[in-house]
Amino acid sequence: MNLLNMRVEVMKTLEKSMDSFLKKYLKPVEETWQPADFLPDATKENYFESIREIQGQAREMDDDLLSVLIGDTVTEEALPTYEAWLMNIQGIDQEDKKGWSQWVRAWTAEENRHGDVLNRYLYLSGRVNMREVEVSTQHLINDGFDLQTANDPYRSFTYTSFQETATNLSHRRVATLAKQSGNSQLAKLCAFIASDEARHAKAYKEFVRQIFELDPSEMMLAFEDMMKKKIVMPAHFLRESGGKIGELFDYFSDAAQRAMVYTTQDYIDILNGLLKDWQIENVSGLTDTAEEARDYLMALPDRLQRISERIRVPEKNFNFKWIKPQTVGILG
What we know:
This protein is mainly α and 332 residues long. It has a single domain, classed as Ribonucleotide Reductase, subunit A (Orthogonal Bundle). Helix content is 65%, strand content 0%. It is built from 13 helices and no strands. Helix 8 (153-180) crosses helix 12 (264-277), helix 9 packs across helix 10 and helix 12 runs antiparallel to helix 13 (288-308). It is globular.
């Protein structure tokens, strides 16, 4: 059996458990939270008072933290790109109403709320140039991304395992920092987003764990390949109005490092977590080439740790067009 056919067969095997995956890792639409649960209700008498509270708390946010929040929002809003990518993975039939395509649609539906609630929060905060944010979002969807996974499920699920874990961490850190600054509303909504991302990360890690049982050597080689390429963030083509593709991402990453929302150390810690979750050192039945891949993966965290010690994060030297100069707010 060739590699493509083997991957399709593995996907079909996992697909037999899809009802269980959907029940365990995603929530019924009628039971889960919606953006309206966290935002002012225009039908209530306290609507404008609620907006004033949001704006008052937003004034206290550090510019780096606000920049990260906006970048995270733009990333979440580029959801059409991610759904299209997942639907093209080998072993997923877009026309099927069940199985893997059902997973992708249901996952997309949960993720869609994240961009919605964050976008509305930023709009109400009074600190954000929403047109610039919208331009960045349209550019990011238009420019797409290059994750170097092709349409391989093994590489794609390695990526999603890593990325959903990173996204959980980022939103959770924003929630913590917001709470420390007294911004309870932002802290609450980011905590709920982080909870979603944690469930999604568990799902994709479980998919990979089962693939290791069914096709250990090829899964090990796919894991190695993705880590050699380095896991890039989905917003790596980020830009502002008038900017070139990808030129904004380094500034966004620097802001995330300074704010301690997502750091080089976090990248290493996530890798270590995946090595433990998938029990890489105990995987059996490997070919010689896959054994070499395992050796590379097990040694990689220490190598990255040594590199990280030489990295210096620059001081703030960039003003995002996304952020308006501080004002008293539209409601005084």
